[in-house]
Fold Alpha/beta hydrolase fold-3 domain-containing protein.
Amino acid sequence: MQPPLPGPAMILHRRVVLSAALAAPPLAAPTLAQAPAPTEAPRTLPARLLPVPRSVSAELQHRIAAPYPANWDHIPPDTAGWRALQAASAAEVDPLLPGLIEALRITVTPTTIAGVPAFDIAPRDMRPDRQGRLLVHLHGGGYVLYPGRAGAGEAMLMAGFAGFRCLSVDYRMPPDHPFPAALDDAIAAWRAVTAQHDPRRLGLFGSSAGGGLLLATLLRARAEGLPPPAAIAPGTPWCDLAGEGDSVNANAYVDNVLVSRTGWLGAAAALYAAGRDLRDPLLSPVNGDLSGFPPAILTSGTRDLLLSDTVRAHRRLRRAGVVADLQVLEGQSHAQFLDPTVPEAREAFNEIGDFLARYLGT
Amino acid sequence: MQPPLPGPAMILHRRVVLSAALAAPPLAAPTLAQAPAPTEAPRTLPARLLPVPRSVSAELQHRIAAPYPANWDHIPPDTAGWRALQAASAAEVDPLLPGLIEALRITVTPTTIAGVPAFDIAPRDMRPDRQGRLLVHLHGGGYVLYPGRAGAGEAMLMAGFAGFRCLSVDYRMPPDHPFPAALDDAIAAWRAVTAQHDPRRLGLFGSSAGGGLLLATLLRARAEGLPPPAAIAPGTPWCDLAGEGDSVNANAYVDNVLVSRTGWLGAAAALYAAGRDLRDPLLSPVNGDLSGFPPAILTSGTRDLLLSDTVRAHRRLRRAGVVADLQVLEGQSHAQFLDPTVPEAREAFNEIGDFLARYLGT
């Protein structure tokens, strides 16, 4: 594998490229039968210092500089431990919501949809160009965190930043309600919403587990003959619970939100799947047939542990002929665009909102 | 910075997010005056094994498994050393081109444009939907490699995969001709091409240094009153020669093409700039005013050392209101989508070609 002449990387790259191209006619169906097996893999990455980039806002630099979350690698040993973790997640967030609701100038009204608890979230002053449109929201948190109103924060940001009325679905979660409870609730809500609203005026969005659940909901809606929304916005969708993407390894310890799948995240996948094959498209919709899906905008960050989930979903949508935009935010770890204190968050929501508005009828 | 309750990453994340949101009204102009300085940075990344992902084609897995290029960190000590490196890069590639030209079923004709050497590259069988359109190509190689026909490989792929006639500009390079020689040649070529062709039928593309040069050429064309092309395709554009983006550090030793800016790449930046400020927009167009630019499609990979160059250019174009698509290819290091032996290369060129065709008039 050594080049015959000294030279920089691209020389070898080109040499390998073109040699292989010549060795493998026809070009349309390349093969590498003569290539050696990848015995050099896995590669050892050296330890190194990772500085805070100056290419982002000062506020985001502070986020990037933050240490790993305490207990990112704490895995509850039993059901009681998961329940405590779930309750703690809500207890952390709930006291902060009144101030956020005031700052965003929105209203948050508890409701139910098809018997599923939900929150009806609306700007206090509805923009004329958002009238008559509704976004259904599925929240993140690894399918286990943020029960109740704590899960609706992203929808509050969408209402506050992008001006849309949102219905945030408080779906059931493990440890008490593993798969398919969340999907059952999401599809029940979607069935009821589409019975009440013209689907051409509906959108569907959510990040992390909410983004994966969104895609799984569309797979099942299609199978059950329910109409799709006019557009979707999966944010860094956790659409591969088996963790087969590259960034789960390449961005491990680079992402300072999730840090590594060896922490609570991998355990949450198993908890939610409850023994089912993690590669099942309803658990990992990146393995599903995404043809016929509505226009989509996907969002991730360069340090995101789920960058590969996002870009694989994007490519899979494009391969299926779906209109699909991608934005990848500089220096951001998993779902950091949900942080309303960084200017990049408002920018991301503006981009998502403009995309959705382009495809939602009025 | 420790959370008061045990819990996974997102709890802390949400807590910080919402606390800061409340502390910083008005929300439209967040400040973090009370936040501590990022004293924890830089973060130490532990050494670790990076496996080859199974989420890409078998051919790409072989590329990802390859070791770092020999001499990626060899920096020529003097002008003679750079000249030798430059000559070696062409000598490596040139013997491979006849086979590639045959496999792609294209013609490659040496020509000149405004006195600048160039290559006129065309499919032997021109698709009807590509008639009357021309793409101008600026090649990569760190502004120092691939003089002569060796630089035209990407244009050959564009002609072969996407069916466009291309004019690949063999611009002058250091060590004998540093900045602004390359830009002078590119703008001279562009001036001549736009005098001969309706710019609504013209595109401009190139990767790595070619992508950066492309953006710089548009900045200067606008300043000189020359028309822009109808669409552009900067592939992983080297648009920040100062290396201020995050992926230059985050993907160091992850990218197995460029490996690290501490190798020849950083030295090539200094060689090209020849003492000028590396942040000058004509050297680093990510710092330029990109408003009024034509529709753009940008391409990178999740392991790309220049992922941040790409996504920062994408965001900067979007902020300027420019139509800009982004594709990020799973597991790929710098410019690996130029490897014609991986199925992902053809897919990337198809995507780029379809985008350009959408905006180029017929």
User: Anything to note?
Assistant: Chain A has eleven helices and ten strands. Confidence is low (pLDDT under 50) at residues 1-37 of chain A. The longest helix of chain A spans residues 343-359.
